[in-house]
Structure formats: structure tokens, C-alpha cells
Specification:
The chain is α+β, with helices and mostly antiparallel strands and 334 residues long. It has 2 domains: 112 residues, Aminopeptidase; 172 residues, Gcn5-related N-acetyltransferase (GNAT) (Aminopeptidase, 3-Layer(aba) Sandwich). It is 34% helix and 33% strand. The protein starts with a strand and ends with a strand.
Length: 334
Amino acid sequence: MNEVSVREIDLHDEPLLRAWWEIGHAADAERPLDLWPDWAESRITLPEPHPHGRVRLFGAFEGARMVGSGLLYVNDADNLHLAQLTPYVAPPDRGRGVGAAMLGALERAAAEEGRTTLVARARVPLDGDSAGSRFGSAHGYSVANQDTIKVADLRATEATWPGLADQAAERLGDYRLVWWLDPAPDEHVEGLAVLYSRFLGEIPLGDLDLQPQTFDVDRVRQAEARQLRTRHAHLVVAAVAPGGELVGYTDVVLHLDAPRLAEIDSTLVLPEHRGHRLGLAMKVLLHQRLRAEFPATELLITGNADVNDHMNAVNEQLGYRPIDRVLELQKVVG
């Protein structure tokens, strides 16, 4: 093997960005379904600045050919100790030191950012491990949490939604549901910021060294503006308590130029308002509105921690089928 050199690539250099994307796509091709973001989405989204964080992309080169790619993300608003990093190597180029060179470069970049907790993701089958999980273990990363990735076929499951909506309505009482496409209505945006701020404190995180985030109206609006600039649609369903405050939400994101796949970003019902089937009610309405607003969407993706029994039961009712798992790998340094 010729010497491999790793360097940061310009997010606005489209040929290099395309080469970076193709390596990631090839590395992800072992999954049961092709869930890699389309190029039409990635070419717009990756270069667009984040309002409260930064994406840095790296390429590993053997001569002029890119043989590995990597991503580093750091949040500049909270969790300032943490960096998220992912190396990608296509199967034909594995086993030649490309991944180790890329990981080393990503770890050095994280150190330059002052980050001491490193988090990476490894895709693994429902049973067993993978090249990614074995690679992480060999380089000092331990499993801190795991999610099962599930997919629902919207056309195949649509007929079940009215019955599930009726089932959920039996327990709603004086709670009600609202929905919107970004931007959030002025009357709800502050309540949405409160829910976003509570999210990480309420969901199962395992041993991940994640601290709760703090959202305000300005942070929500800046995120909405980025969604608009990158041609993403953001659909939100929220639960309103009898007193008028938001007490739960679920949301889905899709790209208008690649609408076949949509992904649920997060779902939360505040603990003090559970027991009213709000999770099921919100999820059913989310599916219904997604189908009505974006009929070209075929598959809806979600991920849940294995210990989240309630949400896993809701997703099973909605016809989600597991396809693989994501291991959250963590390494504390410095």
C-alpha cells in the first residue's frame, strides 16, 4: 500500500465532497436497506453551517485517490467536552490501515477542539458484531448505549392508523394534539424549546457522557432557518395539556429533493403526563400527516434504545420492523 495521508477537505469543494459521500455510501452498503442520505440532500446539507456547532470533513488519500473519509462534529452551545466522530472506509480498502489513519486524524482534530469525550457510531446486525464495532473496540472505544433501527413502510401500514388513533383517543381525556410544518407557531415555540431542553434528561442514554441541552426561542428559530436553507421539511406533532402547555412532541425530517426516506428525529412525553397514550396518539397523527403532506415518502426510519419498552411497543403497533442496531461507542481521553 502506498502511504496514506489524511487532510481536512473544503466543504464547498463539490468533487471532493462527492468522493467523500461515495466512500460513506459504500461503507454503509452492508446494511439490509440503503438508508444513506441521497447525494441531492448531502450536497446541500453538509456545507451549510450549523448555528450552534461545526462539521469538519476529512479525506484519506492514497496518491490522488480518496480511500477513506471521516466526519467530526462539535457542538459549540453545550456538551463542550464532547466530539462526535465517524471514519468511513469502503470494504475493498479495509484492512490496509486506512481506517486507523483516519481515526487518528479525527482524534487529533477533536483534541485541538479541546474535546475529551469521543463518541462514534457503529452499525451492527441485529445479532452479532460488525467490522465497525470490532474496529472501535480495538481502538479503545467501549459500548455506552445502543439503539435498534426500525423502518415502517407507510403504504403497507396505512390501513392500521385509524384503528390505532381510536385506541389512543380512549385515554386522551382533555389532552389534545396539534401539528405544524416549520416554523413553529408563535404560541407554541417557547413550549417546544422547553421540551427540547428536557429531552436528553428524560431518555435512556446508558453510559453516554451527554449533558442536557438548553434551548430558547432563538435557538429553535435558528435551527428552523437552517432546515429551510437546506430544503428540509420538518413536521412536528405536539401534545397540549388541559392547561394549554406543550407536554410532548414527535417530529420527522425529510429532504424535499429526496423524499423517499424520512426520519423521526425524536419523541418525548414528559413523565408527569404519561399514562394517556400520548406517545401512540402523536405517532399515529405524525404518520397520517406525513402521508398527506408528502405522498412520495415511502419509508419512515426511527431508532429506540432497547430499554425503552413503552416506545418500542408503540412502534411495534405502528408496524416498524427492526433492521439493525447502532452501537454508541465512547472513549474518554486526556
